[in-house]
Design goal:
Blueprint lengths: L7 E4 L7 E2 L13 E4 L8 H10 L18 H21 L1 H7 L8 H29 L5 H20 L8 H34 L4 E6 L2 E6 L8 E4 L8 E7 L1 E4 L1 H4 L5 E3 L4 E2 L4 E2 L4 E7 L5 H14 L3 H32 L2 H14 L3 H20 L2 E3 L2 H6 L5 E5 H5 L5 E7 L6 H12 L5 H12 L8 E6 L3 E6 L2 E6 L1 H6 L16 E8 L2 E9 L6 H10 L3 E5 L4 H11 L3 E3 L4 H13 L4 E5 L5 H6 L2 E5 L12 E3 L5 H36 L10 H20 L7
Parallel strand pairs: 14-21, 14-23, 21-22, 23-24, 24-25
Antiparallel strand pairs: 1-2, 1-3, 4-5, 4-6, 6-12, 7-10, 7-12, 8-9, 8-11, 13-25, 15-20, 16-17, 17-18, 18-19, 19-20
Helix pairs in contact: 1-6, 2-4, 2-6, 4-5, 4-6, 5-6, 5-10, 6-8, 6-11, 6-22, 8-11, 9-10, 9-11, 9-21, 10-21, 10-22, 11-21, 11-22, 14-15, 17-21, 21-22
């Protein structure tokens, strides 16, 4: 990220709502602010947004200082191409050289003025996008391909007009007309390719149901999708698409989320589980409480994130921009040198100008303009529909160079669905159920995995949930609250370390290698021990093995005790582990690796791991589900699958390789084409301006096809 960018701001990893224009410390917690890039992203709301996005290709203009297609529409280029091509036919027939080639003579008095009029129409109508583009490039100090094309067609047109008005020589009208036709077609193909690469996600919006079954006054009523609001109760029948994000309140079914998360196996959805707009309900009826419609839905947030990533520029994109800029200058200089050389050698003004125009057109960095953006568009879209959301293009690009990955254990390498194994009273005044009810009273205010396990056990035993007050949560330590006038603490071993208290003895029947221990204190006196068990994800070992094949080291980071950490790391054959680590210490662990020269990725849940995610060279939030607000992560993996981390790195490498291949082709083409355009093989071979434009367009098409091959990547 460029620290000098006008969009550079600073935010707190723990309080992302804090945004400052300059570095410093967070006023809420004192933590050092980290740099972020503030981007404006257009809101997308249902089908209307889909139509708008398809109609106008200029969306990226909001994200960058200069866009060569700003204000252009794909269909406008195509319309100009067809109209100019139709007018080109009489231009060709009236051109003396074409008549000579065809062996015909259809000349008539004043035909040169008719030819001038037709060509002037093509120049002003067909060339207008390039002329306007040149003005914008000069204004934005971003001289590029639009300037080259505009200069080439202007030189050809002005010289041809001068010939008609009496200057000795032969006009360029037919070359001018065919050149503009080819350039219009080439730009249409480029814009169409870029838009097609981005349409996969946007098309999902259009596939949402037109009508929705909403419960109103106890009866089901069909309403238009645009009238759906948060908190509505919606019925989704088998085979129907889910119209909005929501929570299941009744029913059970399998839902196909493959178009949103890449998970090919349908996911079972039951009461109190989340569903995502755009996914397909398969075999049962679901009644959901709507929580996210329109621009607030997961789908639209993903589309906005993808567009933001596509518009942002990585190091490779910046390199391509610099090369294109210098290639433009080289083209102008070489063109002028070519003109001077041929004119001084033979004195033929027409031939010298033809070489000048051919060099400028042939050397247009058109392929460079497509080389990276098209790969970016395809990769971000393909990634998103497979559950990989890229927020920081540079970090994604740098993932290929990672040497170390640090995994948070719970919810990443393990399922994170801790179930209570044992509740052991260690005080005569409290029994199992009473201990559980006290803990549940304070844990009901927490979203931690331990809280979910507690609440699940309370529901299974059908015990009363007591109220509590004064809830307090300390990351990596535990929770505190008042229940029936008594202070209740539910905490791990770190609580005793921080408060300089002796750790209660853990009963022998608790397996500390596989079970997490939580202590219950009432009025500062330990009264019980609760143990939880978590299972390692099936793909965790495969993910670690894949990383080893890539020569990437993997380490486990957890707040659990030494024995659990050692058992999990050993089973997965990881390179090491860190146990009893508090959230702020995770950041220090990342720093320690970076100080050794390692390029580090931190993989966590995007909430407790926020400081470490912000510190890491690549922050990867795993298992975020529909929560795409992991502001400190560079990359979000929607599924809680460790294998996706390895897949992300492999896909990042494939994406980077495509970028480099396209750069080599785009630059290598010019190394060969520019000398030919300058006339190095004259008189054995002469490249015409139109043929130069064809070669230039062909190079662009080849780059586009090569970028398209990225879709075949299996990762």
């Amino acid at each position: 990220m460029d620290d000098h960018s006008q969009n550079q701001h600073y935010t707190c990893p723990m309080h992302p709502e804090v945004v400052k224009p300059a570095p410093g410390n967070c006023p809420k917690c004192g933590m050092k602010l980290v740099p972020v890039e503030i981007k404006k992203t257009a809101d997308h709301d249902g089908l209307a947004a889909h139509e708008e996005m398809n109609a106008d290709h200029s969306g990226h203009a909001a994200h960058s200082s200069h866009d060569k297609h700003a204000g252009h529409h794909t269909h406008d280029f195509l319309k100009r191409f067809w109209i100019c091509t139709a007018v080109t036919i009489p231009v060709l027939l009236l051109s003396p050289m074409i008549q000579q080639w065809l062996g015909i003579d259809i000349g008539f008095p004043g035909d040169q003025y008719v030819l001038l009029g037709l060509s002037a129409f093509i120049y002003f109508y067909g060339g207008m996008p390039f002329l306007k583009g040149m003005v914008r490039e000069i204004r934005d100090k971003a001289i590029g391909m639009m300037t080259l094309v505009a200069l080439a067609i202007t030189v050809a047109f002005v010289y041809s007009v001068a010939v008609v008005l009496g200057l000795p020589g032969m006009d360029f009208f037919w070359e001018l007309a065919t050149l503009i036709d080819i350039m219009l077609l080439g730009h249409w193909l480029e814009m169409r390719s870029e838009m097609a690469a981005s349409k996969a996600l946007q098309s999902l919006v259009a596939l949402l149901p037109a009508t929705v079954h909403v419960e109103q006054d106890g009866a089901m009523t069909d309403i238009p999708l645009k009238d759906l609001r948060n908190n509505d109760i919606v019925l989704i029948k088998p085979g129907e698409k889910i119209p909005a994000d929501g929570m299941v309140i009744d029913g059970s079914s399998f839902v196909n989320e493959s178009m949103l998360t890449g998970e090919s196996v349908p996911v079972k959805k039951e009461k109190d589980e989340k569903v995502i707009a755009g996914s397909v309900n398969e075999n049962g009826s679901l009644k959901i409480h709507v929580t996210g419609t329109g621009k607030d839905s997961y789908l639209n947030k993903v589309i906005g994130m993808v567009e933001s990533a596509q518009a942002s520029k990585s190091n490779t994109q910046n390199l391509a921009d610099k090369v294109a800029k210098w290639l433009t200058y080289v083209s102008i200089i070489v063109g002028l040198i070519t003109f001077i050389y041929w004119h001084s050698k033979g004195g033929d003004l027409a031939f010298s100008l033809e070489r000048l125009v051919t060099v400028m057109v042939t050397a247009c960095p058109h392929a460079l303009g497509v080389a990276i953006p098209l790969v970016v568009a395809i990769s971000t879209t393909k990634a998103a529909v497979n559950g990989l959301l890229i927020r920081n293009r540079t970090a994604f690009e740098n993932a290929r160079k990672l040497t170390t990955i640090i995994f948070d254990k719970t919810g990443t390498l393990t399922r994170g669905s801790h179930e209570i194994q044992k509740i052991i009273p260690i005080h005569d005044s409290y029994q199992v159920d009473e201990i559980l009810q006290n803990v549940a009273a304070v844990q009901q205010n927490s979203e931690h995995y331990i809280a979910r396990g507690i609440m699940q056990k309370l529901a299974e035993k059908k015990l009363e949930l007591w109220p509590s007050t004064g809830f307090s949560y300390q990351q990596g330590i535990g929770v505190t609250g008042m229940v029936k006038g008594k202070k209740v603490v539910a905490a791990g071993p770190n609580y005793f370390t921080n408060n300089h208290k002796p750790l209660p003895a853990i009963p022998a029947d608790i397996d500390q290698q596989t079970e997490t221990v939580n202590f219950v204190l009432i009025d500062d006196e330990p009264v019980g021990i609760i143990s939880f068990a978590d299972s390692i994800r099936e793909t965790a070992a495969e993910a670690v093995a894949d990383l080893k094949e890539m020569n990437i080291k993997s380490f486990l980071l957890t707040g659990d005790n030494e024995k659990i950490a050692a058992a999990v790391a050993g089973k997965l054959k990881m390179d090491g582990y860190f146990a009893n680590v508090l959230p702020h210490q995770k950041l220090e662990k990342v720093k320690s690796f970076q100080e050794k020269g390692e390029l580090v990725a931190m993989t966590g849940d995007g909430v407790n791991d926020a400081p470490a995610l912000a510190q890491a060279d690549v922050g990867i939030a795993v298992g975020s589900g529909t929560d795409v607000a992991a502001e400190t992560a560079d990359i979000i993996l929607v599924n809680s699958d460790p294998k996706d981390v390895a897949n992300m790195i492999a896909f990042g490498r494939a994406t980077y390789n495509k970028m480099i291949q396209n750069l080599w082709w785009a630059v290598g083409y010019n190394v060969i084409a520019i000398p030919l355009a300058a006339g190095i093989l004259y008189p054995q071979f002469v490249l015409s301006p139109a043929m130069g434009a064809v070669l230039m367009s062909l190079s662009t098409i080849i780059v586009a096809i090569n970028a398209g091959l990225l879709r075949l990547n299996k990762k």
